[in-house]
Amino acid sequence: MMGTVPEWISVLVAAAALIAAVWAGLTSKRLFDVERKRDEVALDRREKEQASEIAAWSVTYDTPADQPSPKGLLIHNSSNAPVFDVKVLSTYSKTKRDTPETQKPLTMSVLTPGDYAAIEDDKFPWKFPETQSRVEEKVHSRLRPVTNNPGWMATGIAFVDSYGTSWLRDERGQLLRLEKEETP
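^ thats the sequence. predicted structure below, dont judge the formating
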């Protein structure tokens, strides 16, 4: 039995409908995957938003020729909220060829928005951080970033953002989410 023409047309239409439904399902899945990936990227970006606005780098300022360049750290928060439990790690070497020495960490309970500088101290590892402009007033010189000595640099800044997430920005600026027990 071959069937009638209307039966064949009905079978072909059903097969075409099945193929169209499978194609629509695959297309929907691809679109869903694209949207899900876009949402994941947007969520990751939102979670890193405040953390990406926190940084630290080594600074110095001009002194008379017979005095060594002072060591300092500039801590930057351009977000709209404070971050907490800040720890800045750094190294120092007098010249590019010298072996870098690990410096005592600079710690702060809270870092409010703005630029703050901490300069080396004789009694303690670092003087209390003050606004960059206040430090420049005190030393009668503008702070300069140390950009040409890879041994004299901030090697990391760890902190907790205002949402309670722990972060580490490494010496290359990469932002890493930390588990609570990973804090340096």
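The longest strand covers residues 83-92.
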